[in-house]
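2 proteins. here.
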Amino acid sequence: MLCTTYNQGSRRCPARQISFYQSHFIRTHMVLKAHLTRCHEQFKAAKTAAKETDDTATIQLDWSENYTVKQSREEKGAYYFDQHISILSGYVWSKNESFSFGSLSDDTNHMSEASWIAINELLLDLIEQKKIKTVNIIADSPVSQFRNKTTISMMKKYGEENKINMKWIFLEAGHGKGVADAVGAALKRKFDESIAFDPDNSYDNAVENHIEIKLFLYDSDGIKAVKDSISAIRTVKGTSSFHEVFVTEDGALYAKNLSNEKERLLKTVFKK
């Protein structure tokens, strides 16, 4: 059966069979069903990972939109120059302590190497001081920041060097909002308050203004050092579809396309 033709502006749109729209609806419905399944399973995996046990810490993190430092006084050239601050914010769950954190830098690189140097001090504190043996990380899934071969290589490096198990859970695309974003917003609000309260002493205000968010600093040299230390790993086939990657303390890597599926061993090949 043919659909009735109709006019769209000055064009006359061709008629299509009802079966065309039926098949299109079915395909779209299947895509939506798969998307919702991934949302459900990844949120379920994240909730399970956040359960507090003796030697496990779970971190949820995300990059905030860069903070633009506001001018406390109008000055010549302010219109042409803005200073931006990168903020990687998040929250840590563990049995003995749970807290929010923020990593700050004037380097606006948000690539994977920047993500790892931003949490390096936090990870070392958890591993060396808190004696954590299993680290779970929850984040959204942009391929430039988290879900890529650099993350896989760094997880293997941390697992082998520190003798820990590490798991990275990637939330479904478009559904990565969470507590990390709230922490980032709170930090930006504190920045605004520190500048507005006493513009001439904004730095002292920031130092003396005690907040419960743990702060870490990193710079461009740290990003470069991490980038140079990354093993030259070849592209891992299927990385863009991974929703969970984990490494054991002996460096064995496993991945899942969905957290409720059976893991499979990853074969990583390093360039010579």
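next one coming up
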Amino acid sequence: MRCRELGSGRFLRDCAAAPRAGNRRVGGHRRTDPRPAGGDRPRVASAACREGRRQPSSCNVKVFLIKGIASFNALPRADAEEQLHACFANRVWTSRVAGGRPYKTFAQLLAAAELAWRDLSDAAWLEAFAAHPRIGEAGGHAPATSEREQSTVMEGSTATLTVLAAENREYEARFGHVFLVAASGRGADEVLAALRERMANDPATELRVAAAEQRKITRLRLEKLLNA
């Protein structure tokens, strides 16, 4: 029985009533269920879900992320690294994160990602930055993802986008790498203001700021990857 959202109490009772994988009785006889435990049926992920202290929608998200982790854990090593590379374009990082599988939860994967980031050189960060297109432009190593992330920016006026393009190049001349910002949901004017503010940074400070923005982008991409 699949869980249905018919109001909080009814949803949770239906989930609790969902048959478990394994042995079950059919017509008075015990029958082995061929479906593996933890299969495709949704499961309530925590006591908070079971007891009704969370809304069904939040329980669904939690279960879906866990299912995504299981699929990610099952990928061949090369495929896992390619999926990770679309989130963060550095092979040292992708190798370490892929090699840390299996992960039990999405949070555990993020912790491994953070740990792998700590040991990266400046050159590794610059390699990851270089895989991104300029803000307001198409391209990069994951063009469809970048286009989606920048969709709100691209709704800006022609005048603002023209200025943003010019100041992107001024930024690159000063710091030697693309201007990087977690652009999801941010408009062109807001991004332009952030660029201008960061132009006052010294190169070492700006590298740290850009790395923090890269981590934000990567976390969002990982969440979408495992929740797709």
